[in-house]
Amino acid sequence: MRGGAEAQKRVTGTGTGTGTGTGTVNGYRARTTVNPTEGNWLKPSTYVWSTSGGVVEVCGGGFDVAASWSNWFQLAEKCATYAGAGEVCVRRHERSHRGVPQERGQIAVHPAKGKWIEPRTVRVGAVNDGTTTSKSLDLCDPSCTRRSANWSATVHRNLVGPGSGFEGFASASFALPSGTVKTLKASYS
Hints:
The chain is an all-beta fold. The protein contains no helices and 14 strands.
């Protein structure tokens, strides 16, 4: 666990305008901070502090403090192998970040020895009640790059809550040494 605790005095200023915090103490406040590691949680059972010899129980019984984000979870994957080029995979991931659902699209290229694959775009989106929304990343800005070693790129956005007809997807386009431009899509519903 990382974190700490502190007690702060609430001070009424003397009107000097110096900002030095001098004046009359008219109260206290306490703060505890905890930083759970990824995938873990903390449950403080009692928090006590003293300002004048007395002990005050602030949160008896405990409360859950969980990490504000989680790992990306893979929900769909589509891979294809191309003769004379190698393998391309497209994956769709989701997670919660500070309570906000997010979606991510990923392209991963695995060129064959001595060959290349040229990623062009990666896209993530959803079809929600018949309406498609998405976010794309242009991998050819400022120019396309032929990848001759394993390589990946991602694009992500906040996820709008699924409706009755929901399909989440990730897609990517890429060029092969043959000159063919392909599109690969991974989805779930």
